[in-house]
């Protein structure tokens, strides 16, 4: 995931650099985020507590717990992928290196560790979104070439 000058999440499917999210990417990101039970991550550097203040304490707690669950699951999948590709020894070294980045096991992670966690989750969401956006854009391009189909 890349950041633009305004720290917005940048489109991964866009060929041009530093393009903000397309409408279809944003819509899919919101859909997937809410289906996972987490707040959409448009800006990994944004403080999520501002958005959570608008919710009731019970709802905010639920969103926080869901996010922790999703990021842990995402991290475990990444470790499993490293283990599958490179072996157990490399996966253990990966976990050790990433421990400093994401603050594994910390009760109160630092701001940078929280940002890294949001990056993990946003990458996972975009790994799901990217193929769908590419397929959507392909269909859109083909319709433009052929024109509307008449029956």
Major beta-sheet overview:
none
Tell how many strands the DSSP assignment holds: 0
Number of domain units: 1
Q: Beta-sheet strand percentage?
A: under 5%
Helix content: 55-70%
Kindly name the structural category.
mainly alpha
Layout: helices, strands, pairs:
Elements: H1 23-36, H2 48-53, H3 57-86, H4 88-102, H5 111-146
Care to describe what's here?
The chain has 5 helices and no strands. The relative contact order is 0.13. It is mainly alpha-helical. The protein has one domain. Mean pLDDT is 80; it is low at 1-8 and 10-17. α1 packs across α5, α3 packs antiparallel against α4 and α3 (57-86) packs across α5. The protein has helices spanning 23-36, 48-53, 57-86, 88-102, 111-146. The chain starts with 22 loop residues before the first helix and ends in a 5-residue tail after the last helix.
Quick tags:
mainly alpha; 5 helices; flat; 151 residues
Quickly describe the structure:
This protein has 151 residues and is mainly alpha-helical. The chain is 67% helix and 0% strand.
């Amino acid at each position: 995931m890349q950041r633009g000058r305004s720290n917005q999440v940048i489109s991964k499917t866009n060929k041009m650099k530093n393009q903000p999210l397309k409408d279809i990417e944003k819509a899919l990101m919101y859909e997937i985020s809410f289906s996972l039970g987490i707040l959409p991550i448009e800006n990994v550097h944004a403080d999520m507590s501002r958005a959570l203040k608008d919710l009731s304490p019970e709802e905010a707690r639920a969103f926080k717990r869901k996010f922790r669950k999703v990021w842990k699951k995402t991290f475990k999948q990444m470790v499993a992928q490293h283990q599958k590709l490179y072996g157990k020894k490399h996966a253990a070294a990966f976990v050790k290196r990433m421990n400093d980045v994401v603050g594994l096991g910390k009760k109160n992670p630092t701001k940078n560790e929280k940002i890294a966690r949001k990056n993990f989750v946003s990458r996972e969401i975009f790994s799901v979104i990217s193929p769908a956006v590419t397929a959507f854009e392909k269909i859109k391009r083909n319709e433009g070439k052929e024109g509307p189909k008449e029956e």
